[in-house]
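Protocol step 4 of 5: obtain the predicted structure for the target chain.
Materials: sequence only (see below). No template structures provided, no constraints applied. The aim of this step is simply to have a reference model before the mutagenesis design in step 5. Sequence pasted as it appears in the construct record:
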Amino acid sequence: MSADSRGITRRTALGQIAAAAAFGAAALLPSAQAAPGKPASEKARPGRLKQSLSRWTSEAPLPELCKRVKAIGFAGVDLLYADEWAVVNDHGLAISMGYPARRDNFIAMGFNDPANHATLLKELEATIPLAKRAGVTNLITMFGNRKAGIDERKAIDNCVAGLSKIAPYAAENGITICVELLNSKVDHHGYQGDSTAFGAAVMKGINSPNVKLLYDIYHMQIMEGDVIRTIRDNIQWIGHFHTGGVPGRHEINDTQELNYHAIATAIAELNFSGFIAHEFVPTQPDPFASFAEAVKICTV
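Step 4 output (structure tokens):
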């Protein structure tokens, strides 16, 4: 998670937001009434892929961000807290990924450690019905940082045990829990879910269509490369994608090493119906020019 000129990262953004113990349903009522029983994701969009923008990548006020990304061609906004959902829905956009909690240690505290399960399950159980009311179909969670005494096999077993407990409730409400793969080499030292093999082993153990991987292309390029082949081999376990240029997590154009148009084409050819969410820090003077460029690159 690279910083822009003002030092903003997703980790920083999480830390700057005041902690909240629970989310009230009242904030969701306007959007639920505006689109009863239906997510806002049915907006017409170009190409075969639904594209969204991660909220933390822009400092624009959320209403302004929604107006501008909708005009560009985005179908949704990614990584939002429950008290932000109504704003996005009211602008006719999807919440492509929601947070179940505000915590400074959101990334480090994951399902690899059984000591975390009670807290993580409580957060998801509280947020799932709110997500259903707002038409939010994806919630994010983490594998967590490595702990002494918990090796890879034990960590996989712990993740399977914990996530299997929430899978039936997620299925009952039409929600997919997406567990993110991150790199432990550059941005998140110590993170345990740092390979597709680890994530796929957890998914196979759970074997639920309502628990999937959030495959972050930026992170997995850093850790293992071979992105297109890996996506093709593991698409059944993937529910969501994030983008970002390598190195630096900036624009996904020809200033970096990945061919995102080819990656997007490969994803579309697999008939992927979820979202590909752009999660990079723009370097252009007008960040929305970078966002528009990303939409164009991934329109296939």
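Step 4 remarks: The chain has eleven helices and eight strands. The CA atoms of residues 204 and 237 lie 8 Å apart.
Proceed to step 5.
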